[in-house]
Write a structure and sequence with these properties.
This protein has 389 residues and is mainly alpha-helical. The protein has two domains: 12-167, no CATH class; 169-389, no CATH class. Helix content is 73%, strand content 0%. It is built from twelve helices and no strands. Helix 5 (142-161) runs antiparallel to helix 6. The chain is globular, with a radius of gyration of 20 Å.
Length: 389
């Protein structure tokens, strides 16, 4: 959908992938978490079909997270290749496919969501494959494989829920989370040091080649260990990975970003990856419940990094200054408090486990409600500089 420089107030939600997908993901994150928290508090709405942790896990990973990844890739791949990615009616169809899955899982016909979700994942993979392959952008081919892997994992998860696939549901989720973890660590390694150096003169954020290989390679070995079902090996690999990623983050000058919310949200959220890996190692030896490691990744890292990247990308791609305002800071603080409530409170006070979960859920919903309300006008109107996109 093209707009002229004089139509700055035009409604252009399908001009570029980040617009509708970030907005849908934000609204869905707020609403779905509120529904899940209501179930935990035993005030679940009667019409909700899936009353189990399976629904919550699937929707946060394959609903929310995959939507954000799609919005990011549709936007980034166009920049990387200077070739078009889905927009206009094609992008609208992709978004409707995703939305159909989110509605279907709340109904007795939830099995049909396996079809719509698979179509969505394949559509995203095709939407980025054409420009990447045509431009021979080999460095980013792995994103095609990663999206298809997440689509396959989602389909396998439906198979588990429907009783047609005899594998543990947690094994499918763990492998899918490893794929998301790899995507996040690759993207963060490319952009966080660059963003830091661009915004903080003399920051000196840097990457060391051998450490990059160790840190990213450890995540791939962790994925292999999880696919093989080796809990003890995965614990050892996670411990090594935690050390490598802590060293990696240390090179990015995190303490020089404290006055810049658009930066510190990325650094703090990346630190939750280290917490996740450390807790995964501890859980593998039976020292802590495995759910704490999972939620350090999903709430702290995925929640924080996606919020940080969505706000930064939306501001940059709509011609706005890269400067956080009150709404952004509020959403960042809320998501970090959600991670503390969900992970650290139960870890320090096991008797407050349920209270920590409910508090974390409410804080998560508030964070994304703030984001959605603040970014509705940004994501549904033309760039303020009159440029297309």
């Amino acid at each position: 959908m093209k707009t002229s420089s004089g139509s700055r107030s035009a409604f252009v939600p399908f001009a570029l992938g980040f617009r509708p997908l970030f907005l849908l993901a934000g609204a869905f994150a707020a609403i779905s978490m509120l529904l899940w928290t209501a179930q935990l508090a035993d005030v679940s709405p009667a019409w909700l079909w899936l009353h189990s942790p399976q629904w919550h896990a699937q929707e946060m990973l394959f609903g929310y997270t995959l939507a954000v990844i799609a919005g990011f890739l549709f936007t980034a791949v166009r920049n990387w290749t200077q070739l078009p990615t889905p927009s206009g009616s094609t992008l609208a169809a992709v978004c409707l496919t995703w939305l159909a899955g989110r509605v279907l899982v709340l109904t007795p016909g939830f099995a049909w969501a396996a079809l719509t979700d698979t179509v969505f994942a394949v559509s995203v993979a095709l939407g980025i494959a054409w420009p990447l392959l045509r431009s021979r952008n080999r460095r980013n081919y792995f994103f095609i494989v990663a999206v298809l892997a997440l689509g396959a994992a989602n389909l396998a998860y439906y198979g588990v829920i429907l009783g047609v696939l005899a594998v543990p549901a947690n094994a499918v989720l763990t492998a899918a989370l490893d794929v998301v973890l790899f995507i996040m660590t690759v993207v963060a390694g490319r952009v966080v040091p660059m963003f830091t150096n661009n915004a903080v003169p003399g920051a000196g954020a840097r990457r060391v080649t051998y450490l990059e290989y160790v840190a990213l390679g450890a995540i791939l070995v962790l994925l292999g260990s999880d696919l093989a079902g080796s809990v003890r090996l995965a614990a050892i690999v996670a411990a090594v990975a935690a050390i490598a990623h802590a060293a990696r983050l240390g090179l990015w000058a995190p303490f020089k970003t404290l006055r810049n919310p658009l930066l510190w949200i990325l650094h703090v959220s990346y630190a939750w990856i280290i917490v996740h890996l450390a807790l995964r190692a501890a859980a593998g030896f039976g020292w802590v419940p495995p759910g704490l490691a999972t939620h350090a990744l999903t709430v702290g890292a995925i929640g924080g990094l996606t919020l940080g990247m969505m706000t930064r990308s939306a501001r940059g791609h709509t011609g706005r200054p890269l400067q956080a305002e009150g709404a952004e800071v509020a959403s960042y603080v809320l998501i970090e408090l959600a991670a503390v409530a969900r992970v650290l409170t139960p870890l320090a006070f096991p008797a407050a486990y349920l209270a920590g979960i409910i508090t974390g859920g409410l804080l998560w919903s508030a964070a994304f409600a703030v984001f959605t309300a603040a970014y509705w006008p940004i994501l549904t109107h033309a760039r303020i500089d009159g440029k297309p996109g």
